């Protein structure tokens, strides 16, 4: 094997390792932790990580190929906008997570037709419908619950049409991976061009980088899923606190990104946006 071939293989191997490291970026971990907080199985969490990694790889390959092969130049305002979209996405993830959890305090109104608390053995504690965790008075006698399963927010969402999409649970992390890929693809492509001038080798590096990102995110979701899946069964109240924390962290991190990109470092909403791909 020639020295040139060894150098190419070394760069490809480096791309895989850097892809795994890239998966551990703070905004990536915050986003995926918010999604994994709803999962109740380790296998499902790992598949979510894979879906995120595939989405990220798709945009990195598409944008990277455009830059490497066709010499496309990303305007500063567009580049800043792609990074700004990550902040908006994190805020939305946080809001949707907090809104979907339900209130742990307070007591929901008992639906009409359900006997009163004094008439039957009805009590109040935290419980779950799938991944929707909430609290209201209910009993274990036949027909005594406070509401039917189809009245939870997630059930209503499923009936609106999303429940008919077979891969709905993995579509969301895939789309989030697409957005993250848009924000980071330019920096990755420019880094490759500074090292590898041959387009085919550069695209190979990009592909290995994407595969490393998928593997890295699968490992991250495997680690993150452990406390959520354990507490969902054994410590439901603590699981609720974890999910609230993940939603708040996502929302706060997104607000910080929006401020930094929109008004401070990036100055997106000015006539002279500043964009430094990193």
TrEMBL record:
Q: Which residues cross the membrane?
A: 50-72, 84-102, 174-196, 203-228, 240-262
The UniProt entry's coiled-coil ranges are none
Q: Which UniProt keywords apply?
A: Membrane, Transmembrane, Transmembrane helix
User: Is NADP there in the keyword field?
Assistant: no
Q: Which domain of life is it from?
A: Bacteria
Q: InterPro entries in the record, alphabetically? A: Chloro_ReproSupport/MetalTrans
Q: What is this protein called?
A: High-affinity nickel-transport family protein
**Per the UniProt entry, what species is this protein from, by scientific name?**
Bradyrhizobium betae
